[in-house]
Amino acid sequence: MSSLSLAVRDSSTMLRRNLLHARRYPSLTLNLLLTPIMLLLLFVYIFGDTMSSGISGGGPDRSAYIAYLVPGLLLMTIGSTVIGTAVSVSNDMAEGIIARFRTMAIHRPSVLVGHVVGSVLQSVVSVVLVGAVAVAIGFRSTDATALEWLAAFGLLVLFAMALTWIAVGMGLISPNAEAASNNAMPLILLPLLSSAFTPVDSMPGWFQPIAEYQPFTPAIETLRGLLLGSEIGHNGWLAIVWCLGLAVLGYFWSTSKFNGDPK
Questions:
Q1: Local structure of 151: helix, strand or coil
Q2: By CB neighbour count within 10 A (0-12 exposed, 13-18 middle, 19+ buried), where does 42 fall?
Q3: Given 4, 5, 248, 257, which residue has the most CB atoms within 10 angstroms?
Q4: How far is CA 190 from the centre of its chain?
Q5: 36-83: per-residue pLDDT in tens?
Q6: Which has the closest alpha carbon to 156: 127, 135, 187?
Q7: Start-to-end CA span in the chain (Å)
């Protein structure tokens, strides 16, 4: 077989393995998925009127706040889902299956590729489920064109791939599943420090750089602009740069740890 055929075959095998694990043990994915759904319901029905009044400066408008909130929570869903990838990779390391794969005549990167592709697919499914809940409680995107919807989907997939490679690296350096979950926790905490719930310019001046100069804020503003027609400005190319930079960093970090001598 050619090198390409071998890579595709082994990567497909590893992808099937990871999807089977996700199907047989869905509790981790479901628990991580509940976080953005609970936050969505909490902020809409408990804080919605107050938050919408503060953002718009007018009367309470829960529907307007749903529209503002959903793009950030969709990206938060990705950050939450990929924590499961870090845990899964760490379990593979702890159980010795990675060491076994290293001794087999397989395309070595396929082990990581299987985790990444499987995680991206799970992230897409999770985003669809959270999006369905958002639509059920009133979210609408009537002004977005088909091209903007396609661009929004592409951004979500690219963002999921970038965070997944980072999560794989975190899983490889973690001694156990608990440590992997803790190491990957910033992927779900960073959205809380972004423009997901409130505009950056409404935050204290000393805190605004923290919210602005991180990967989630430009991605959220870009997704918000694509779905709701708000101004994207420089956030579009910043989001792409962040995604590509994190993906490249995560890839080289993960492959170097994977190909290193086992301890």
A1: helix
A2: exposed
A3: 257
A4: 11
A5: 899 899 988 888 777 777 666 665 667 888 889 999 999 999 999 899
A6: 127
A7: 32
Other C-beta atoms lying within 10 Å of the C-beta of residue 2: 7
Under a CB-based contact definition with an 8 Å cutoff, are residues 249 and 257 in contact? no
pLDDT score at 114 = 87
- Convert 43-79 into a string of H (helix), E (strand) and C (coil): HHHCCHHHHHHHHHCCCCCHHHHHHHHHHHHHHHHHH
**Residue 11: per-residue pLDDT:** 77
- 243, 159 in Cβ contact below 8 A? yes
Give pairs for 124-128: CB < 8 Å, separation 24+. Answer: 124/156, 124/157, 124/160, 126/29, 126/32, 126/33, 126/77, 126/78, 126/80, 126/81, 127/74, 127/77, 127/78, 127/156
Residue 227 contacts residue 144 (beta carbons within 8 Å): yes
Q: What is the pTM of this model?
A: 0.89
Backbone angles phi, psi at 214, to 5 degrees: -150, 165
Which residues have C-beta within 8 Å of that of residue 64, sequence separation ≥ 6? 52, 55, 56
